[in-house]
Design brief:
This protein is of the alpha/beta class. The protein has 23 helices and twelve strands.
Length: 502
Amino acid sequence: MSKDNRALIGRSVELKELTDFATMKKAGFVYVRGRRRVGKSTLLKELHRTRPHVFYFFGADDSTVRGLLDSFADQWDQFTGKVRLTELKKLSWSRVFSEVSEYARAARSARQGSLPRPSGLVLVFDEIQWIAKAKSGCAGAIKEAWLDWERLGVKVIICGSSNKFFLQKTGGEETILRGLKTRSDIWISPFSLGQVKRFYFPKWKNEEVALTYMMFGGVPYYLNRIEDPDRGFIQCINDAVFKHDTIFLEEVDEVLRLEFNEHGLRTAKMVLSCLGLDGTTQAEIQRTTGLALTTVARALESLLDYGIVFQKSPAHAKRQNDAGMRFFMKDFYLNFYFQVLLSYKSKIESNKAKGLLFPQVLGNSNAHYFIQNFSGKAFELLVRYVLERRVPPDPALHRIFHLRDYEYEVLFYWDKETEIDILLESQTDRIARIIECKWVGVANDEGGRYLKEVVGKKYIPPSAYSVLRFLCVSKPLSAQFVASAKEEGVEVVGLESLFADE
């Protein structure tokens, strides 16, 4: 399957949502959001390609305000077939949007010929964080123009990867674009685990696909860097990630620069490098980095706001306080970069021959693709992600965890004696589900140890709640082991269960 076909076939729901918005018989204002590299632009370009009344404009991070205005003027004149904006010596966003209003007004009056119908014109602003640069006046001009556009039946799609932009420009009482959108955001999410296997690596083992997902998530741009999967998992990952020309050493800056300036970028990377696999408190980060506590606190607040990290506190703790909070990486790629790639950076940069560096990272092949200080906790992150998608693609996932609906909480728990990987609680059935995640095949000599570990987890659930225990593993287990686990009150969940797809 070609890259273009994957991008569109796997996005039929999202593309329909965009098409429905673009063809509705009234004005509208919507935000299209999602992680960088997830495929938002591909969908919007397809909408532009298939709908002649869609005007698409893209902003680049290295463009000047003048450059963006000139580019908009040129593309708009091509779109309308009239030379108007490009003849002007002085351009501003207010001026070019005034021209858009005039065009929409003429279309409304004409109602005939080749002009779009009054409800037809759709304006797409892609990578809005680079278009509406600081002090450019763009965001304010959009707000002002919307007063006309709404009356004229114009539809506006604002798309961006920066959570910071939407937080600062649309989220609060004083933000410029607050209150303009007419419907809920359209989110373009990463592909699911099942989609990645189906669209990208149908011949790979589930374990290989899952480990790849733990490195990159379901981000199409990253997955497209893995060429010719028929060469096999080891060779493909080695060539895409562990050779000197890889994109994945520099990509960390590309992701974080969306939200931080150069000074903030350095601080954010220092903080992220301290998180570790088991989470880190604010005080531990301060001690490790030597940064002022206020600097760390501000950095963590931004990282939380922008969805780069998440924080855990123990469920049902009698006393919640900031000192007990642990901070964890939320993004698969960033987690992989700081836990693995950063420590191999010099070796990767010097790997210019055809040598296989990746097997050294994997260590002993008998460990079932186990990456030291990464695989175990990354697997936990994967299981948590599948559960938090809230759209288990197959009822099988619900059956396995005995869930009746989507009204459950994914929680965490630890105290001085016990730490639970994932705690799933539902008020519907009043069941607390203890889920332990193990990224290795549970061999005979390990199975008993892991089983005792799960059974030994001490947890007192809320009043009137019962407890179920689950062991989630990456390798198929023997029927004998599954039976013995069930006798101990533990249900075994195999990796294949996580691949259930929409």
